[in-house]
From TrEMBL:
UniProt-listed Enzyme Commission number(s): 1.-.-.-
Keywords: Oxidoreductase
Species name: Oceanobacillus locisalsi
Protein name in the entry: SDR family NAD(P)-dependent oxidoreductase
Family, similarity comment: Belongs to the short-chain dehydrogenases/reductases (SDR) family.
InterPro entries: NAD(P)-bd_dom_sf, Sc_DH/Rdtase_CS, SDR_fam
Coiled-coil residue windows: none
């Protein structure tokens, strides 16, 4: 039984980047189930078409826009294509992203550059590219950026990933301030670990996933909460609540929290 249907999603076109798997896939399915039209963006055309077929089998509608890579040139071309093909786009969910967990001394700078390109610059480019479109209409529009609790509660071995998410959170907060007089809502989604394929790249030895598996969020639950928030005046979504509470205490008492939670912080 579906709970608390968000009727403002009906017939709305909403871009979901990184839609081929994980949280993005569940968000796209939930948008379609709620009567919206997810615009599916990812690098795997085969997985996108498979998802589109699944949505259609459930009597939903979707649009497929594969992208070879989340490069500046490819995104620029894709934005132009979408603007030509779609009369009105109502929302953007910047979900594409990945992480690699390494100590600072072991960082591969090329990995860090790619994390910043996918996790930060791509999302900024999509948001900037569609911003004039969103602002020209009187009806509500929404940009949701999937960030991470790592942006608020950084832990060892996440230097590159946490830095990219801190950058995206800062961008989101500033975009919200700059558009506060408009009908555009800007929301950050700050998540703890979610049970997806994210950890296949991030945590190659499986140690962290094994240590936190019992605390992991289910992607379907995350997607449901995000879609229910679409076109509402939601500033942030923070999951799980206790990790958000920990991040607040960390900002107030960083040294104390690092001492108390050392064993938790070192689970990677």
């Amino acid at each position: 039984m579906r709970i608390r249907r968000n009727r403002s999603v009906d017939d709305k076109k909403i871009i979901v980047t990184g839609a081929s798997k994980g949280i993005g896939r569940e968000i796209a399915k939930e948008i379609a189930a709620q009567g919206g039209i997810p615009i599916l963006v990812a690098r795997s055309q085969a997985l996108l078409e498979e998802l589109a077929e699944e949505i259609e089998a459930d009597n939903g509608i979707s649009k497929v826009y594969p992208i070879d890579a989340f490069s500046k040139e490819a995104i620029e071309e894709q934005i132009v294509q979408m603007m030509e093909n779609e009369e009105r786009i109502h929302g953007l969910i910047n979900n594409a992203g990945f992480g690699i967990f390494d100590a600072v001394e072991d960082l591969n700078i090329e990995d860090v550059e790619e994390m910043f390109q996918v996790n930060v610059l791509a999302g900024m480019q999509y948001a900037q590219g569609f911003l004039p479109h969103f602002l020209q209409f009187k009806g509500k529009s929404h940009i949701i950026n999937i960030v991470s609790q790592s942006a608020k509660l950084p832990t060892p071995k996440t230097a590159g990933y946490a830095a990219s998410k801190q950058a995206m959170l800062g961008f989101t907060d500033i975009l919200r301030q700059e558009t506060r007089e408009s009908s555009l809502t800007v929301t950050s989604v700050n998540l703890g670990p979610v049970k997806t394929t994210f950890f296949e790249a991030a945590d190659k030895n499986g140690k962290y996933q094994q240590n936190v598996e019992k605390y992991m969020l289910q992607p379907e639950k995350v997607a449901s909460k995000i879609v229910r928030s679409l076109f509402t005046n939601k500033r942030e979504i923070n999951m799980p609540w206790w990790m958000e509470a920990g991040s607040i205490f960390y900002r107030l008492f960083p040294g104390l929290m690092e001492r108390i939670l050392k064993s938790q912080f070192d689970k990677k």
